[in-house]
Amino acid sequence: MSWGFLRDLLSGVNKYSTGIGRIWVAVVFIFRLLVYIAVAENIWKYEHDEFECNIKQPGCENVCFDHFFPVSHIRLWALQLIMVSTPSLLVVFHVAYRENREKHHNRKLYKRPGELDGGLLCTYLVSLILKTGFEIVFLVLFYKLYNGFKVPRLVQCDIRPCPNTVDCYISKPTEKMIFLYFLVATSCLCIVLNLSELSYLIFKYSIKCYLKRYIKKRQ
After folding, report:
1. Smallest Cα–Cα separation from 168: which of 49, 65, 45?
2. Which parts of the sequence belong to the Connexin cysteine-rich domain (predicted)?
């Protein structure tokens, strides 16, 4: 599939982000999307064909592969990239709504349609919460589906139609595990960046409200 739409989405949101948000966009684009396209897809490309068991019983190899890999790592990673990037659409839609509203009224309603204040700030905070939530959900999903963040060299399977316990071997386990760790590390980094940006915006807005109240009292 083409990842151009995701690149365009991240580039569009970058205009309305804070400094921390721009770092998040860079991490997603360089360390996740480009790594996925350039390297990870090729590593997992033939994972089913290269999965071998020491028995030729018809159906046994397919059943064992489905048991140990219910969802492909690479497809789950792709779904994670899409899901953590989608909440950014909320910000783009909100800015577009502001711009259309100004055109409809034919006058200036906002200092800058893309400025983080009022309703747009709330939308931005919601998008940060959703992105963080999706990251955590996918990390838990990875951990539960594969019994931890590891790729074993050998798995033993005794599921029918296998006549007995058979040994199955996973191709390039070390290489796959390195990139799985890289996935987890970048995902954790994105969670930290999202929480940092969320804390920064809440703190900044709280200080701004406090100063307004203080100035009113002084007046």
Report:
1. 65
2. 134-201
Q: Report, as ranges of residue numbers, the positions in the chain whose pLDDT lies below 70.
A: 1-14, 102, 107, 109-116
171: exposed, middle or buried (Cβ count in 10 Å: 0-12, 13-18, 19+): middle
Query: Which residue has 């309305």 as its token pair?
Result: 16
Q: 79 CB contacts (<8 Å, ≥6 apart)?
A: 138
pLDDT tens-digit profile of 174-212? Answer: 888 888 888 889 999 999 999 999 999 889 888 887 787
At position 196, the amino acid (one-letter code) is: S
Domain extent at residue 176:
3-217
Average pLDDT value for the chain = 81
Per-residue pLDDT reduced to its tens digit, 154-182: 888 888 888 888 888 888 888 888 888 88
Q: How far is CA 165 from CA 63, 67, 155, 170, in A?
A: 13, 14, 10, 16
If phi > 0 it is left, if psi is from -120 to 50 it is alpha, else beta; for residue 107 that is beta
Count structural domains, the chain. 1
CATH of residue 211's domain is 1.20.1440.80
